[in-house]
Amino acid sequence: MSCDPPGPQPVDPEESSRYSRSDQLNPGWWRKLEEAVARGRRPVDEAVAIQKDEVLLPWFNRTLVFNPGKREIRFLEAGVGEPGFQEGLVALALLDHLFVHGRVEPEGELVNENHLPGGPTFFRGPHVMASVKIARKFAREGGEFLRRGRAWGGRPVEYGEYALEFTVFPGLEWIVVLWEEDEEFPARAQYLFDRGLARIFQLDVIWALGNVVAAKLLLQKQSN
């Protein structure tokens, strides 16, 4: 049987040159970050570090480095590629939240996108969550799904048939649940995250984070 999940597939904003560079990200966020660094301010959360004119942010078992003066983002570690536009969007939005509110404070209730205010309307058509791509790719490869996820710090957890929990940032967890296809049902994947995520990100940023998670799992080459 076909392993393609039914329904629409999400668009990929990074296929457009309009969304390809970190200096195209929200200029207001960049300006506030540059001002904070210049004044020596930092969030309450000790996970965020400032070294000279750069900000270091823990990110998916790696570290992102922001240079607000140059409006550049890179990984501190070698061999893991460069962060794409959507990854930069989510990470910069998180930094904006941290510099304003100090830290991430989960509410302690796991939900999917359809339980967020406005979610059932937003996460449709081209904005459907990229979990559908994960279902298609790993329809009969749950073990490979787990292997790839571990390379980005994913921890197996007990949801569905296979599930991984990622620490995007300390206090910000993202779970991917996978059910393989069988003779009766197609493969299915679902994202779970803390309800409080809606207080940190707008819906389009949550959607972008779903795309980022899928992109990491779909990479052919992983670095440990």
Please summarize what this structure is.
This protein is an alpha+beta fold and 224 residues long.
| Tertiary shape | globular
Number of helices: 7
What is the makeup of the main sheet? 5 strands, antiparallel
For the biggest β-sheet, the strand order reads 5-9-8-7-6
Structural class: alpha+beta
CATH topology of the largest domain: TATA-Binding Protein
State Rg: 17 Å
Residues in helix, %: 25-40%
Assigned CATH class of the largest domain: Alpha Beta
CATH architecture grouping of the largest domain: 2-Layer Sandwich
Number of strands: 9
What is the residue-averaged pLDDT? 90
The parts where pLDDT drops under 50 for at least 5 residues are 1-5
Element-by-element helix/strand order: HEEEEHEHHHEEEEHH
- First-residue to last-residue Cα separation: 34 Å
Tell me the count of domains: 2
Percent strand: 15-25%
Description:
The strands form 2 sheets. A 5-stranded antiparallel beta sheet has the order 5-9-8-7-6. It starts with 26 loop residues before the first helix and ends in a 6-residue tail after the last helix. The radius of gyration is 17 Å and the shape is globular. Helix 1 (27-38) crosses helix 2 (85-101), helix 2 (85-101) crosses helix 7 and helix 4 (131-137) runs parallel beside helix 7 (203-218). It has 224 residues and is an alpha+beta fold. 31% of the residues lie in helices and 21% in strands. The protein folds into 2 domains: 15-101, no CATH class; 106-218, TATA-Binding Protein, CATH 3.30.310.
